[in-house]
Amino acid sequence: MSTLGFCELTISYDGVCAVNSFNNILHSGEWLCLIGPNGAGKSSVLRAAAGLVKYSGSVAIDQKEIPTTSARWRAQHIAYVPQTPLMPEDMSVYEYVLLGRNPYIKHFASESAHDKLVIEKVLTRLDLTRFSYRLVGTLSGGERQRLVIARALAQEAPVLLLDEPTAALDIGHQQHALELVDTLRREQGLTVISAMHDLTLAGLYADRLVLMHQGVCVASGSAQSVLRSEILAEFYGVSARVHHEPDGTVVVIPQRSISN
Amino acid sequence: MSIQGRGHSVLWFSLSGLLVVCAILLGVMIGPAGPTWWRIPLELINQLPLISINSGVSKVDWNIVWMIRAPRVVLAAIVGATLSVSGASYQGVFRNPLVDPYLLGVAAGAGLGATLVFAFRGNQPSTWLIDPLPLASFCGALVAVFITYTVGTSYGRTRSTVTLVLAGVAVTSLATAIQTFILQRNNDVIRQVFSWVLGRLSSATWGDVRLVLPYVVISTVVLLLHRRLLDVLRVGDDEATALGTNIRRVRLTIVLAATLGTASVVAVSGLIGFVGIIVPHAVRLIAGSSYRRVLPLSVLLGAAFLVVADIPSRILADPAETPIGVITAFFGAPFFLILLRTRKNES
Questions:
Q1: How many angstroms separate the Cα of A58 from the Cα of each of A65, A76, B127?
Q2: How far is CA A129 from CA A116, A219, B19, B95, B203, in A?
Q3: What residues make up the domain containing B182?
Q4: A86: chain B residues, CB-CB within 8 Å
Q5: What tens digit of pLDDT does each residue of B120-135 get?
């Protein structure tokens, strides 16, 4: 249960500004989704929080600024799932989840009994126990996605960063993966921040959407307030209809600009 | 790791340990001169304190075994173990299964150092008190890797290993070019240089063993301590960092340790190719890809492999020596080709 705060987060690559003065606070257990066109800076925000890019400003957990020097401390508090995780094909499922315990295992030590217990629990929770000795390369896309989430859970970090968690999945597995994240978030009080391209799914699962454009936050709020056709037209350059279902779900449907 | 997994590891470690013992015994027993082979184990037992057996081995014969064959076998074990564990570590650090321990210019640097010594002293036998050859090749190797690392990591702030490997290629070419130039001007030593390049264990003494042992022990211990972290590095620089690893420090330590080990064995044995590739891959095939098993098993099987490979090198062309590099290449090159063909593409 932790809050995550960004204060004046600015990131530039070789002098080109990718994110400019990003500010936001996520409450404990909140799911925030970053949306925006390609190159808007969504991934950069996540990568900064994961300590993978240099930034100015600060990222704080429970109002405690993350020390840029300690990768270990950061990994105990923030779990990061990249867009396309590099999964060694010939590594076993158990060994892969074990990597998530790295922030707790001393430099030259092996995993403790407690680490093993955590892994067993995570494998059971995500229904992966029967795969323990299978090689990663033999898993399907959906199983792999579960496995990456399992590794992140093994980190026992209160904050979970998901970069395009469903990009490579079919519609069924997209739903399974996001439902899983949502359930885990409720069970364990995880604070989740994700970057997503599918606007309907983003609106469906996230508590709050933040629309980014050219490194700047241009709109923030509920799905109803951010997913409006004039906003999408302005920042995505897309012609889309936005439907409001009776249950509050917002559906974004792209439109052909020239009718046949 | 479950009971089952642990059981498998214990099995593999015991089998490999047994293999090393058998290889060493075989290595000590077989040779062109000396006592009958079956008398040697008896005499070895006789040499143990408090035990006395009449093995029928004469003092002279025992000297052949103990002063000539034994150091050679022990050195082969040390060299094999070090090249294998360094090779496996380099493959882990660079996430490239086809990398060998000579990647960053160790071989070319050592070769240049050795060539300088040969060219300097010509065909005259060494009149020096201490043989400068190991020292020169050791220094050559370290200087080459130092240049590679400095150049390779100074370019940009990228964490990529590509620049490092490219710098290694450049340093290797430069050192080889200088070596060729020196050889052209000193035709008379070409033969000696090539015999060194092909690797040799024939002149091994207990002095050589003592010379390399401290470096090799340090290097191997450091590498073995990093075996779990090498598994973490397998998911790539970004994810390893996000998992709380200081990858720059880990990578530098592993590269330094592997280079120290490689440079010190190259100094006493010349260049023995393929060991650093064949052994780690064979280990992966039988015991899985986790570095927690690959590194320790590479130490054991590397030792056994080179001790066994050294046996034909003594007796094939008796009384001449077949360079051990020829033997390892003879087995290594086909193995390497098969590996290249059958290896599934890793993402």
A1: 6, 18, 67
A2: 13, 42, 35, 28, 56
A3: 3-21+80-342
A4: 234-236, 239, 347
A5: 876 666 666 667 888 8
Q: Decide if B73 is inside a domain.
A: no
Higher-pLDDT residue of A43 and B197 is A43
Please report, for residues A137, B238, B311, B336, the alpha-carbon distance to residue B341 in angstroms, rounded to integers and kept in the order given. 19, 30, 30, 9
- Of A141-145, A153-157, A209-213, B84-88, minimum mean pLDDT range: A141-145
Domain of A45? Answer: 4-254
User: Would you say residue B60 lies in a domain?
Assistant: no
Q: Do B235 and A107 touch (CB under 8 A)?
A: no
Kindly identify which residue of chain A lies nearest to residue B232, measuring between CA atoms: A99
CB contact under 8 A, A74 and B244: yes
> Is the entire prediction scored with pTM above 0.95?
no
Nearest-CB residue to A88 (from B1, B234, B242): B234
Nearest CA in chain A to B291: A91
Q: Touching check for A204 and chain B: CB below 8 Å?
A: no
d(CA B254, CA A207): 45
User: pLDDT by residue (tens digit) across A180-215?
Assistant: 999 999 999 999 999 999 999 999 999 999 999 999
B26, part of any domain: no
Q: How many domains does chain A have?
A: 1
Determine, yes or no, domain membership for A24: yes
The answer to whether residue A20 neighbours chain B at the CB level (below 8 Å) is no
With an 8 Å Cβ cutoff, is A85 touching chain B? yes
Supply the DSSP symbol for A67: P
Strands (E), A131-215: 159-163, 191-195, 208-213
Q: How far is CA A176 from the centre of its chain?
A: 15
Nearest Cβ partner for B243 among A47, A99, A108: A99
Judge whether A92 lies within some domain.
yes
d(CA B326, CA B321): 11
Residue A150: Cβ within 10 Å count: 21
Identify whether the C-beta of residue B113 lies closer than 8 Å to the C-beta of residue B268: no
Q: Residue B48 CB: number of other CB atoms within 10 A?
A: 9
Judge whether residue B3 has pLDDT over 50: no
Tell me if ipTM is over 0.95.
no
Residue A259 lies in a domain: no
